[in-house]
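Quick check before the chapter quiz. The format below is the same one you will see on the exam, so make sure you can read both the input and the output lines.
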Amino acid sequence: MADGKVVTCPSCNKKNRVPTSATGKPQCASCKAALPWIVDASDVSIAGALDTKQLVLIDLWAPWCGPCKMVAPILEQLASRYAGRIKVVKVNVDDNPRSAQVYDARSIPTLVFVRNGSVVERMIGAQPAPALSARIDALLGE
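Here is the expected output.
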């Protein structure tokens, strides 16, 4: 199975595979536009997923969690809106207890913002898109 996730380019609608970890920002192979960078990570792969200069939003979630299901489409929209500026890393806490412990996911969803490997902000519970956008804008300095 290939590393990464297939996403659709918001500019030209071509499908592209974005890697879980990479040194640069993913861009469309066809039109070169910045791609939404949203990946799944595990206890084993999270270090590589966080190895980026971009602001990372870690989504600590579980498949049975209703609020997590509410936040998921919002995170996909934000990954598209902030393509090239943020990376969304999704971690299923049921399958990855070490990551859940490291990022103190006592309640889910827990959203953790990481820059250069350090936690800079955390939000607990389902957050509406405007609240998440405001935090991302503030953390990006916009």
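If your answer matched, good. Strands lie at 5-8, 15-18, 37-40, 55-61, 86-92, 110-115, 118-124.
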